[in-house]
Amino acid sequence: MDFFEECSVINDLLQAKEEIEARNRLICLLDILGRENQAYNPLLNHLIRESGLYPYLEPETSSWQDRFVFESFKVDIGQDEPVTLHSEQSLVLKHLLDGDNLAVSAPTSFGKSLIIDAYIAIKKPKNVLILVPTIALTDETRRRLSKKFSAEYKIVTTSEVELGEKNILIFPQERAIHYCDKLEQLDLLVVDEFYKASQTFDKERSPALLKAMLKLGEKATQKYYLAPNIADLNDNPFTKGMTFLRMDFNTVFLEKHEEYKDINKDVQKKTMHS
């Protein structure tokens, strides 16, 4: 692959507003350079900035304008060093910090957990409740947030625990219902895979999730609902009055190699000649 030719193609795609194709090609180029341990030059850093992939910038080889963007999009997410958000993460965080109720459709690689962590670190809410689809995700989310916020917050994952002065509650929907009466006020209600409140998508999970969303939503000052690949919001009670953001922003690119077809061809050739 000719480096400058590929950069020219990516630049042309960006100019033509073909952002998704441009990002996919840029991510592939960065992967190649990474495997070859090659440093980024100012041209590549500029394309990274134009694509909104700010965390990928290499400040040491960037122009001062690109370094400025890298530093400007840094936020506190509750760990030792701030991290740089990409452009769409920053947009979602801005909406949340402005107090908007958000329903966001974004790919799984979007980095939604960083936004939640940044919100908690910056806004320092009293009570946050996060509804997750599985027990495994409950434990994964607890471990992530405990590392960052256990000194300031009580991290609650079971219904028997008494609440502290400041709490981050992480539950599947069945457990969350037990806390509806214990919580007087909720600063932020986060619902992962909120589309499963519809029986169309999940008949088993839907009744309990819908009940939890409606009851907790009444106590929540702000709501942040997440899902992958939702085209729009239907008229329904649990997302009424929410701002819908559809994000097609990908930070990874998956190439599908159907190698089994080549293997099958080889097997057939060997069979024919044996």
Give the gist of this structure.
With 274 residues, the protein is α/β, with parallel strands linked by helices.
Entry keywords:
single chain, 274 residues, alpha/beta, Rossmann fold, 7-stranded parallel beta sheet, two-stranded antiparallel sheet, disordered C terminus
> What structural class results from the helix and strand content?
alpha/beta
The topology string of helices and strands comes to HHHHEEHEHEHEEHEHEEH
Outline the biggest β-sheet.
7 strands, parallel
Secondary structure: number of strands = 9
Strand ordering within the main sheet: 5-6-4-7-8-3-9
Which term fits the overall shape?
A: elongated
Low-confidence stretches: 254-265, 267-274
Helix content bin = 40-55%
By CATH, the topology of the largest domain is Rossmann fold
Our count of helices gives 10
Can you tell me the CATH superfamily of the largest domain?
P-loop containing nucleotide triphosphate hydrolases
Provide the gyration radius in Å. 22 Å
Q: How many structural domains? A: 2
What's the architecture of the largest domain in CATH terms?
3-Layer(aba) Sandwich
End-to-end Cα distance, whole Å, is 39 Å
CATH class of the largest domain: Alpha Beta
How would you state the average pLDDT, rounded?
A: 82
Percent of residues in beta strands = 5-15%
